[in-house]
Amino acid sequence: MSILGFTGLTAYFGLLDICNPQPGETVVVSGAAGAVGMMAAQIAKIKGCRVVGVAGGEEKCRFLKEEVGLDEAVDYKSENFKEALEKATPKYIDVFFDNGILISCVADCSWRDGIRRMSCSCCQKREVFYRTNVRTNSRFSICGAISQYNTRKASGPRTFNNIIAQRIMVKGFIVFDYESRYADARKDIAGWLKSGKIKRRDYIVEGGIEKAEEGLQALFEGKNLGKCLIKVGKEKSRL
Length: 239
Description:
This protein is of the alpha/beta class. Helix content is 33%, strand content 21%. It has two domains: 6-178 and 187-191, Rossmann fold; 201-239, no CATH class. The strands form three sheets. A six-stranded parallel β-sheet has the order 3-2-1-4-7-8, with helices on both faces. A two-stranded antiparallel ribbon has the order 5-6. Strands 9-10 form a two-stranded parallel ribbon.
């Protein structure tokens, strides 16, 4: 229901097929303390990348560094989010696995805080979009848009010209597109899990199906660490 289910499959195909991360590249994962984000970040580490997780709150960021083993973790709720992200990505971003921040930043600081508008190093008097937090020819995988699901007025990137100037490849995907390859993906994921290369965390809500609404609300409030599951039976959990 989590790592070997759609959670793991979404992270696997969204990161590897769309972004094709290479050893030594910098990968940023938003929602990195959530179910899919945590998996995507760990797969990027397995592929030899430098991984920066974006999550809400100091506790989640500490968990990502100390327990999951990410290189850096940035709190999108902090006042200095932009500066912290810049410091965590000194060699710029090659891959961005997005769970909602790109479409409309959960931190309510918009696209321009993740991909900054800066003065061109060749001409300080003209503000252009040639130098940003992302490297030229970077790849963005759009996995989700949780900040948009309940809004009546959708919002999008404000500095859209960055996509052109930096030649950014931005692609959305649906995990069902890869149904014919689920078995192969599960084989890889199971191997990583068995060898200890992937760590799991589930956020289990006790109390039966009556607590399903509470569990769903926890996702939108960012309370969960890992996959959110509702325990509906009295048997000892096999998770």
